[in-house]
Design brief:
single chain, mainly alpha, about 70% helix
Length: about 350
């Protein structure tokens, strides 16, 4: 398997092909897990549920484990064992993501995800999806036990996944109680509240977790990488700000979805900035129109964002964030760690989707 990831300049396609193949290996193992006596019907259900929810995204988080580990190893050719372990950890992150999204969609009463109906919207699924979410979450320790139990960093991996899951679920709680449907109160939407939600709900599992997995595989102690964690959490915050900006100002054709943050009364970076920059008249317009599905209300909010020059505010934020992140990255003593962090930053800087 290592032959597919050649020295120094592995093509992304090869890495992705190997990565995808390992999904099928892991799925096969899980469908034959001796801890449960499967019926044909239950095995078929889980097989279909996994294919529907786990491999359908861009796989950036999972592939980042492989890319980061390769950089930490100086770009040398990886052994087939190393490739397998890095891919298995990458898939654990994709499983974690699937678990969050399946349950998130139920909580948000969403309709589509990744261009298809949300899992719980499928006929015959409904609220069985809550149990499917629990199964997805429980597959992670099964994969870890099967492939990492004999390795010295096994307990560290379990701790890492448990802690990041706790942080993400707590971030989701913050988001849910701040944006409570029944009480549309914009005064709650401040920058510290926004940053806290994003840090816990998105940044830890999307940015820190893949690098932490690669560091553990490399024999490192995560206690020595607190600065790296802080840089990645900051990068995750920057990523979410971009997402919020693109939700309103991005081209739906290009980003592949129509943004609904305004209609959904989301605690978005744009509304937080609008509240900071607006005068009393403009705040009244926001309060009157934010969180309404009526197209005219949405247009008024977007017009207000333009009046407040939020595109320029975002441009300034983007440049300042990039400069600050580069400064923090270049202060890191390890050149390999610097390269890992820069590879993350360059993937997202000035992205359009």
């Amino acid at each position: 398997m290592a032959d597919n990831i050649t020295n120094g300049n592995a093509s992304m396609i090869d890495t992705k092909a190997v990565f995808k193949q390992i999904y099928y290996d892991l799925k096969k193992e899980l469908l034959e897990d001796p801890a449960f006596d499967f019926t044909d019907e239950s095995r078929e259900w889980i097989d279909k549920m996994l294919d529907y929810n786990v491999p359908g995204g861009k796989l950036n988080r999972g592939l980042s484990v492989v890319d980061s580990y390769k950089i930490l190893k100086g770009g040398r050719e990886l052994t087939s064992d190393e490739v397998y372990h890095a891919c298995a950890l990458g898939w654990c992150i994709e499983w974690l993501q699937a678990y969050f999204l399946v349950l998130d969609d139920i909580m948000d009463n969403s309709h589509t995800r990744r261009g298809q109906p949300c899992w719980f919207r499928n006929p015959k699924v409904g609220l069985i999806a809550t149990n499917d979410g629990i199964i997805l979450r429980n597959h992670i320790p099964r994969i870890l036990k099967s492939h990492f139990k004999e390795l010295p960093y096994y307990v560290d991996l379990l701790d890492l996944f448990n802690e990041v899951e706790f942080q993400t679920a707590s971030g989701q709680l913050l988001d849910l109680i701040t944006t409570h449907e029944g009480e549309k109160d914009l005064s709650k939407y401040t920058l510290p509240v926004y940053r806290r939600i994003v840090q816990y709900k998105t940044a830890y599992y999307s940015f820190y977790l893949p690098v932490a997995c690669a560091l553990l595989m490399s024999g490192e102690n995560l206690d020595n990488f607190v600065n790296v964690k802080n840089i990645l959490v900051e990068m995750g915050t920057y990523f979410q700000v971009q997402d919020d900006f693109l939700d309103c100002f991005g081209d739906p054709e290009f980003i592949g979805k129509i943004g609904t943050d305004i209609e959904d009364f989301k605690c978005s970076w744009l509304v937080v900035q609008a509240l900071e920059h607006a005068n009393d008249t403009q705040k009244a317009i926001l309060s009157e129109n934010y969180g309404k599905t009526d197209a005219e209300c949405v247009a008024k909010v977007k017009a207000l964002y333009k009046d407040l020059s939020l595109e320029n505010v975002f441009g300034e934020y983007e440049s300042a964030s990039y400069e600050k992140l580069i400064g923090s990255i270049e202060a890191e003593p390890s050149k390999e760690v610097q390269e890992v962090l820069k590879s993350f930053l360059h993937k997202i800087y000035k992205r359009q989707k």
